[in-house]
Amino acid sequence: MFLQGKTALITGSTSGIGLGYARALAAEGANVMINGFGDAVAIEGYVAELAAASGGKALHSGADMMKPDEIRAMVAECTDRLGAPDILINNAGIQHVAPVDEFPEDKWDAIMSIILSSAFHTTKAALPSMKAKGWGRVINTGSMHSLVASPFKSAYNAAKHGLAGFSKTVALEVATQGITVNNICPGYVWTSLVENQIPDTMKTRGLTREQVINDVLLANQPQKKFVQVEQLAALAVFLCREEASAITGTNLSVDGGWTAQ
Ligand code: NAD
After folding, report:
1. 141 C-alpha vs ligand 1 centroid, how far in Å?
2. Is 188 a catalytic residue?
């Protein structure tokens, strides 16, 4: 339990990858503030589970990552009730797929706010106490789309590429202060979101489950396997260890070979 006494704040962690990070950090003893939307009873259950796992405290913030005031209030609440974040994971994200000349303006703005600007606001609010302590970890959930593009995802690709540049910049600014900043770049990850779209794609394209998985979802993922949430969470935990203190300003691909092509 090497993270006992430390506090982690993870945006977009009421499901999927973010919840995986929260579980893995709590298992190492960290107090955890989770954030995101979803069913209140389920969220209450996650908070109880995380507190029990860490033996410390856990809380949920419903702050909307599109709203800078709410983001600042979330960091302040975390500081007051759990401790200033020693570990900040910027993970909230949404997707919208459309050709750029048909891309809805409101979707562009939402994606840029939730993925990119929220990371600026959380980092700005959390860094001063990390600097004061001389220790901190900022981990961003980028994507293979921080490094390469796919068509019809202009906002997502722009925001995720932006997150890579933001991570490098902050890493340089705090390089001598015991704080590392990295961008984890997953390929296609097995989450309920992915699982739920399989039956529809089978129906609309007249394909078997195996064809949807191998020829549609994993067409560009050479290993033909989804990345597992636990694999990403294990990397985040490693980044918090002293052994990882020289890893900063990097894009860390966990993508089954996607960006080797
Ligand atoms: P998910 O939909 O399960 O999780 C998204 C989380 O963000 C949820 O907790 C949701 O409530 C929260 N969220 C959405 N809008 C928000 C807002 N305005 N304010 C606060 N919280 C908000 O998806 P996931 O697959 O776990 O994705 C997590 C991150 O991983 C995202 O940044 C995504 O781009 C990235 N990613 C996912 C994959 C994949 O294949 N699933 C691949 C690469 C990168």
Report:
1. 9
2. no
Residue 69: partners with Cβ closer than 8 Å, 6 or more residues away: none
CATH code 3.40.50.720 region(s) in the chain: 7-187+228-260
Global pTM? 0.97
CATH number 3.40.50.720 given to 7-187+228-260: yes
pLDDT in tens, 87-133: 999 999 999 989 999 999 999 999 999 999 999 999 999 999 999 99
Is any ligand 1 atom within 6 A of the Cβ of residue 109? no
Ligand 1 within 6 A of CB of 188: yes
Mean pLDDT of 44-52: 98
Q: Is 92 in the pocket of ligand 1 (CB under 6 A)?
A: yes
Tell whether ligand 1 has an atom less than 6 A from the beta carbon of residue 13: yes
Which atom in ligand 1 lies closest to the alpha carbon of residue 62?
Answer: 20
> Which atom number of ligand 1 is nearest to the Cα of residue 142?
44
> What tokens appear for 113 in the block?
């706010």
Closest by alpha carbon to 89, among 4, 5, 167? 167
| 144-186 per-position pLDDT tens digit | 999 999 999 999 999 999 999 999 999 999 999 999 999 999 9
